[in-house]
Amino acid sequence: MFDRRLLRNFDWLLLILVCTIVAVSLLIITSTTINITGDPLYFAKRQLIRFAVGFVAMLFILSIDYTYFFRLAPIMYLAIVAMLVAVLFIGSKGGGAQRWIDLGFFELQPSEFAKLGIIISLARLLSAQEGNFEDMSSAIPAFFHVALPMGLVFLQPDLGTSLVFTVILFGMLYMAGLRVQHLLTYAGIGLAIGAPALWLLLKDYQKKRLIIFINPYLDPLNDGYQIIQSLIAVGSGGLQGKGLFAPGTQNALNFLLEQHTDFVFSAYAEATGFVGSVILILLYTFLILRILRLAFLAKDTFGMLVCIGVAVMMTFHILVNIGMTIGIMPVTGIPLPFMSYGGSSLMMNMMAIGVVLNIGMRRQKLMF
């Protein structure tokens, strides 16, 4: 049974921030897809349903003491690995990648849910070491823990999500107590050995993305087209934007592709301008700060590390997604949390917020 006294520690502001960003997302999705189908609300309604499902999942997570997640972490990890293996054999293809399992009523993207599962299972592993990170070798189990699912995701291929796993790992290792010099050493070794090997393993289109990132005008009509149109859209928004349902050239005339998914920020910036963009970034900033606040209020190391993992994951998504729309990051296909159209990403993020709120609610033991 859910104890109502837990609500005294419930972070209502964090939930309000999430719901506000989702509301903005529904508006911009409607604005960008109004002429795609006969039903102007088709995509918005689907996203609203996914949000509702994610909200119910969040409420279910809130009803369970988060310490049970510590016990279930090994099962979560095995389930994640099993799903990532399955998608390589029975997954549906799209855009040159094989990342989804078609359930008929919903296309499940296991790599999205793997992020949360890795955060929880890695938090268990690191907290079990009880701060024993005096030497470099103490971090090796964590690297092996993340290497398997990260490798399976890379095979889909999904370079962006693979990088998310790496950032989560380093962020959680730092908060668990691994020294900065050891982290820098691991990063240096990874770049020296991994970068050349990674280049050889990348698909041709992935290599082109990295090259075009340096100068999109090398191929303005093909591989550089999207980033050029994104830059035009962001710039054309000016100070106050052209309005959500006004005929912004890049969005309304379909010069900007993927305007409701990966490049939703570009469409949003064109519609709301510099002012709207700053407001959205501030909402994200407050969101991350609230998660960090709950991390440092957590009653145990496991809870703290889970919150840190979620904060690192979302921060990386925000920086990379917005960065690629303004040309300072390569195009990776990483969605913008709570804004990009997509079921798996939205539901996973709602579940992640549920876990964070759960940890915040139970930061104190109930006294009888």
Round the Cα radius of gyration to an integer and report it. Answer: 21 Å
* Biggest beta sheet summary: 3 strands, antiparallel
Oligomer: single chain
Q: What's the tally of helices?
A: 13
The chain-level mean pLDDT equals: 87
Number of domains: 1
User: Shape, please?
Assistant: globular
Strand order of the largest sheet: 1-2-3
Report the sheet-strand fraction: under 5%
Structural class: mainly alpha
* SSE pattern: HHHEEEHHHHHHHHHH
How many E-type strands? Answer: 3
CA distance, first residue to last residue? 15 Å
Poorly predicted tracts of residues = none
Please bin the fraction of helical residues: 55-70%
List the helices and strands and how they pair.
Blueprint: H1 12-33, H2 42-62, H3 67-90, E1 92-94, E2 97-102, E3 107-108, H4 110-128, H5 140-154, H6 159-176, H7 180-201, H8 204-214, H9 225-236, H10 249-252, H11 264-297, H12 301-325, H13 343-361
Antiparallel strand pairs: 1-2, 2-3
Description:
The protein has about 375 residues and is an all-alpha fold. The chain has one domain (about 5-360). It contains 13 helices and 3 strands. It has helices spanning about 10-35, 40-60, 65-90, 110-130, 140-155, 160-175, 180-200, 205-215, 225-235, 250, 265-295, 300-325, 345-360; strands spanning about 90-95, 95-100, 105-110. The chain has a 3-stranded antiparallel β-sheet with strand order 1-2-3, with helices on one face. Strand 1 and strand 2 form a beta hairpin. It is globular and about 55 Å long.
